[in-house]
């Protein structure tokens, strides 16, 4: 029996794979989408804490590109072809209402990431894409005609079945959150067939600190704080929301800082939290003096309710070294200074990043020098394309990583 031949085989049914396969199908190609999980879009379904931050509303293309750092310019053609605005129109046309939230975050109006997955399934169906679940790809078979015409002939599934296609698109994602299926399978195939893989590292990961004190603060969420990273100098800082975990810190600004930390060589770093970034030292001192004046006969331990979240108070009292039973009107200027320093520079020592297990995104991946940004085609293998997180490009939180998947997936499908 003749083996079925496809125009395109897409490996990996995540965000990039689904949009790419659907678009190729829409353009009339015979497409097979191979996914190792029992379901499509397992990671997509848990994005944005189950709400899926589909993209970001940033209107200026230059700003958008800059957000991705030095590799951002690789996205120029992809974003031109299928911009963040196109993403919104695309989903709205599939019947998915969207909404805009703070920081330009665009989400499904239903607050349900599963609705995004369902829309993409509908798109795949409309494009007559053959979806094959429980189909892990295990091997890539290439051959070289003349010296420089290297091609993939076929891929082999775990059950031994061969898939033959004219072109192959790898959308297997990165290595983060491996329980969703993204286990970095393609990196080893790619290195074997001559591609360079920039060392994958967990990015957008919670941070672990050395101090055990965080155990007491686990679950405390912080709003409007500034967190900064230091060696001898201040390296980076970010303002917004964070969260204490039992080992350290997480939350939007911590995840964004972790993306920078993973690129710093020295790991002898300090993390400082400014709980009152809107008040400089003298203003905070005045504010505390005013509170102490109002509560003059109270004990120190009962005087910080207006200033700090409840869970933080015993920790600050303990670290301040001020006797908790002391009346506030007996607190000295030096003691107050120490308290203010704690509130403005709550210092912890960096121990590490939580790692791939809980990282939102992988930095590193297929070296962009070996991929044509206008087509997403490999410069090494003539019928190979890439899209999504497998590429060496990543962004901060705010919908930017899914935008990479949508734009590169859509472009790659236009083979
Ligand atoms: C908890 C969490 C929350 C997130 N929230 C957001 C958010 O709100 N907004 C945002 O922009 N980004 C978010 N991200 C990042 C975003 O989800 C990813 O960047 C995006 O899913 C990458 O899409 P992808 O298609 O390239 O890869 P993936 O979504 O990882 O898909 C890859 C697929 O390939 C399959 N696969 C792998 N190997 C094989 C193989 N050998 N054979 C067959 N199939 C294979 C996998 O099973 C998987 O389904 C979040 C990530 C996480 C982990």
Strand percentage lies at: 25-35%
Mean pLDDT: 96
Radius of gyration, Cα only, in angstroms? 25 Å
CATH topology of the largest domain: FAD/NAD(P)-binding domain
CATH class of the largest domain: Alpha Beta
Question: Which molecules other than protein and nucleic acid are bound?
Answer: flavin-adenine dinucleotide
- Please estimate the helix content: 25-40%
Q: Choose one word for the global shape.
A: elongated
Q: What is the terminal separation in angstroms?
A: 28 Å
Task: Count every beta strand, where a strand is a DSSP E run of 2 or more residues.
Answer: 20
Which residue ranges are poorly predicted, with pLDDT under 50 across at least 5 consecutive positions?
A: none
| Derived structural class | alpha+beta
Give an account of the 3D structure:
With 415 residues, the protein is of the alpha+beta class. Strands 1, 2, 6, 7, 8, 9 and 20 form a 7-stranded mixed beta sheet that branches. Strands 11-14-13-12-15-16 form a 6-stranded antiparallel beta barrel. The chain has helices at residues 15-26, 47-50, 61-67, 76-81, 84-93, 113-126, 185-192, 214-217, 252-261, 281-294, 313-320, 333-344, 400-412; strands at residues 5-11, 31-34, 55-56, 98-101, 105-108, 130-132, 137-145, 149-157, 162-170, 197-203, 207-209, 221-230, 234-244, 248-250, 270-274, 346-353, 361-366, 371-372, 377-378, 384-386. Strand 7 and strand 8 form a beta hairpin. The chain has 2 domains: 5-202 and 361-412, FAD/NAD(P)-binding domain, CATH 3.50.50.60; 206-354, Helicase, Ruva Protein, domain 3, CATH 1.10.8. Flavin-adenine dinucleotide binds at residues 11-17, 34-37, 42-44, 46-48, 52-53, 136-137, 171-173, 176-177, 181-182, 185, 360-361, 388-389, 399-402, 405.
């Amino acid at each position: 029996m003749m083996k079925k031949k496809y125009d395109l085989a897409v490996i990996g049914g995540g965000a990039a794979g689904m949009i790419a396969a659907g678009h190729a199908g829409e353009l009339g190609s015979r497409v097979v989408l191979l996914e190792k999980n029992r379901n499509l879009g397992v990671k997509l379904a848990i994005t944005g804490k189950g709400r899926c931050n589909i993209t970001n509303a940033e209107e200026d293309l230059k700003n958008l590109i800059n957000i991705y750092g030095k590799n951002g310019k690789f996205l120029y053609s992809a974003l031109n072809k299928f911009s963040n605005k196109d993403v919104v129109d695309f989903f709205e046309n599939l019947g998915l209402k969207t909404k805009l939230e703070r920081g330009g975050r665009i989400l499904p109006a239903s607050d349900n990431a599963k609705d995004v997955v369902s829309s993409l399934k509908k798109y795949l169906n409309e494009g007559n894409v053959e979806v094959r679940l429980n189909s892990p790809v295990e091997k890539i078979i290439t051959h070289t005609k003349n010296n420089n015409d290297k091609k993939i002939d076929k891929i082999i599934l775990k059950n031994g079945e061969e898939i033959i296609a004219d072109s192959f698109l790898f959308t297997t994602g990165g290595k983060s959150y491996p329980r969703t299926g993204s286990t970095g399978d393609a990196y080893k195939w790619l290195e074997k067939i001559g591609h360079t893989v920039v060392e994958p590292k967990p990015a957008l990961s919670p941070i672990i600190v050395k101090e055990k004190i965080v155990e007491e603060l686990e679950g405390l969420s912080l709003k409007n704080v500034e967190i900064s990273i230091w060696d001898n100098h201040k390296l980076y800082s970010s303002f917004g929301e964070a969260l204490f975990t039992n080992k350290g810190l997480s939350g939007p600004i911590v995840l964004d800082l972790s993306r920078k930390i993973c690129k710093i060589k020295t790991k002898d770093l300090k993390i400082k939290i400014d709980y009152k970034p809107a008040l400089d030292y003298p203003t905070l001192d005045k504010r505390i003096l005013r509170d102490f004046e109002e509560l003059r006969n109270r004990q120190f331990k009962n005087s910080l309710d207006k200033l700090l979240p409840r869970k933080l108070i015993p920790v600050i009292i303990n670290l301040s070294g001020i006797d908790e039973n002391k009346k506030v009107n007996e607190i000295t200027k030096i003691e107050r200074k120490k308290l203010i320093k704690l509130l403005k520079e709550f210092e912890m020592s960096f121990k590490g990043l939580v790692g791939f297990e809980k990282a939102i995104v992988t930095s590193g991946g297929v070296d962009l020098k070996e991929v044509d940004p206008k087509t997403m085609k490999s410069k090494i293998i003539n019928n190979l394309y890439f899209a999504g997180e497998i590429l060496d490009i990543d962004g901060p939180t705010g919908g930017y990583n899914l935008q990479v998947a949508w734009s590169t997936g859509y472009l790659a499908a236009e083979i």
